[in-house]
Design goal:
250 residues; Undecaprenyl pyrophosphate synthetase; six-stranded parallel beta sheet; 8 helices; 6 strands; binds 3-methylbut-3-enyl trihydrogen diphosphate; binds magnesium ion
Length: 250
């Protein structure tokens, strides 16, 4: 990390948790006259780079959206290519996680994934669970509405079984049932490639998160772009429903 870069970072409050909607792989590839799947392959390499950079910058939690519950609607050959990328990624990730001391968790409903991918996910989570580096969450077959519904079903089951009382259900208890339990809410959400929507990402968890949108497509999103997002985050005034404290003139 260059000294100039380090200085820019030293004066900043680095968000503890950054959530990313990595979008634009397909358009990026098309613009180069390449197939969409080439964009996905390059995009997945960029995930590795950004994980390392994020940790160097002092980010403790990084959550990326890799495949949504709606992405099954894509053409079969694209879904197959994405699944085979994920399959390979799980293997590479096992090595990178060991190297970088990263703790990996997959959020989303993995029951719909092929058995071998599920097995790799469980291996990866098990192998990295004691690691003390970056907490890296990958959202696969993730949809926020689906996550909330799965949580509601489990809470209802626990109520029927007499494990909890309906009146005891508060935000804290509800969060235990979400895929993101024990992970602090994101401070900053970044979406690449120009779309200004959430596409069913972390609807509960992003309640008070700052949003940053950029036109840069995911394969071109570098550490410099990440730094820009953090700089903009620093210029924001987070309030959580309160009022801005006036500086006292003394
Ligand atoms: C993001 O890139 C990756 C996934 C959703 C899997 P896209 O595939 O959505 O790329 P665009 O948005 O079509 O360019
Ligand atoms: C959101 O991107 C999902 C992921 C990045 C995995 P999409 O490209 O699927 O979202 P829409 O369809 O443009 O809303
Ligand atoms: Mg897209």
């Amino acid at each position: 990390m260059s000294l100039r870069y380090r200085r820019r970072l030293d004066n900043m409050n680095v968000p503890q948790h950054v959530a990313i909607i990595l979008d634009g792989n397909g358009r990026w590839a098309r613009a180069k006259g390449m197939p969409r799947n080439y964009g996905h392959a390059q995009g997945s390499k960029n995930v590795e780079r950004i994980c390392e950079e994020a940790w160097r910058m002092g980010i403790k939690y990084l959550t990326v959206y890799a495949f949504s519950t709606e992405n099954w609607n894509r053409p079969k050959d694209e879904v197959d290519a994405l699944m085979s990328l994920l399959r390979n990624y799980m293997k590479t990730c096992l090595k990178t996680a060991a190297k970088n001391d990263m703790k990996v968790r997959v959020i989303g409903d993995i029951s719909r994934l092929d058995e071998d991918i599920r097995k790799r996910i469980l291996e990866l989570e098990e192998a990295t669970k004691e690691n003390g580096g970056l907490n890296f969450q990958i959202a696969i077959n993730y949809g926020s509405r689906d996550e909330i519904l799965r949580a509601v079903r489990r809470i209802a089951d626990d109520c029927i079984a007499g494990k909890i009382k309906t009146e005891a259900i508060d935000e804290e208890i509800f969060e235990h049932y979400l895929d993101t339990h024990d992970i602090p809410d994101p401070d900053l959400m970044i979406r690449t490639s120009g779309e200004l929507r959430l596409s069913n990402y972390l609807l509960w968890q992003l309640a008070y998160t700052e949003f940053y949108f950029t036109d840069v497509p995911w394969p071109d999103f570098t550490k410099e772009e990440l730094l820009k997002a953090i700089e903009q985050y620093n210029a924001r005034d987070r309030r959580y429903g309160g009022v801005k404290e006036e500086k006292q003139n003394v």
